[in-house]
Design a protein that fits this description.
- This protein has one domain: Porin (Beta Barrel).
- It is about 10% helix and about 65% strand.
- Strand 3 and strand 4 form a beta hairpin.
- The longest helix is centred in the N-terminal third of the chain and has 18 residues.
Length: about 210
């Protein structure tokens, strides 16, 4: 009886060892584009575009990099016009909360990102009271400013067909530092939104998995 038990235990140990799956360190890159920002141009003078890259490391860590630009042009009821244009950069790290597929093709995730933007803007027809009898209208042209912020994100990415995936992401963000213009405080920050804290937003992304 003992003679049979020893080979059986060795066989069970070998089988358990075979079931341990080694996940390669590099699992691919997903390139994503924001679908919502460009469509805003259909309804207003505010629009933008962004492209990002997510790197899959062992199906556990997803460093992400994003570049883009935003355009903001708005008039208030008093005729004051604010016009902004600038680029932004974001870097961060996402972590899967739930995933499926050999290379995390379907994933529910959370992460933390840092964003930065250096931009210029114009404020025209700025109206403010100068004294009791008189009022002043002025403009500030080519104001230079910069800002950095942190984002807590959560999102979903789902494989649609072949290398194509769709996903959405919720952003909860707050500025860390803002360098104002020489004469004004920027009311809008490219890549962030209105200059208030905290801010929230949502993006809808289309992804393509690179073939290497």
């Amino acid at each position: 009886m003992l003679l049979f038990a020893v080979p059986l235990s060795i066989s069970a140990a070998n089988k358990k060892k075979e079931e341990v799956k080694i996940v390669p360190f590099y699992q691919g890159i997903q390139i994503g584009v924001d679908l919502l920002s460009p469509t805003q141009a259909l309804f207003s003078n505010n629009y933008g575009a962004g492209i990002k890259a997510d790197i899959n490391l062992k199906n556990k860590y997803f460093p992400t990099f994003e570049v883009g630009f935003s355009n903001f042009d708005k008039n208030n009821e008093k005729g004051t016009r604010c016009a902004f244009s600038g680029e932004y950069l974001k870097v961060g790290l996402n972590f899967p909360l739930s995933l499926s597929g050999d290379k995390a093709e379907n994933m529910f995730f959370a992460g933390i990102h840092y964003g930065f933007s250096a931009f210029s803007y114009n404020i025209e027809n700025l109206y403010y009271p100068n004294n009791y009898w008189d009022n002043t209208i002025t403009s500030f042209q080519n104001e230079k400013a910069s800002a950095g912020w942190v984002e807590i994100v959560t999102g979903v990415r789902v494989k649609v067909m072949g290398p194509i995936s769709l996903g959405w992401m919720l952003h909860y963000k707050s500025t860390i530092h803002v360098s104002n213009g020489d004469h004004s405080i920027p009311p809008f920050i490219p890549g962030y939104g209105l200059n208030i804290k905290p801010m929230s937003g949502m993006t809808l992304n289309l992804y393509y998995k690179l073939p290497f």
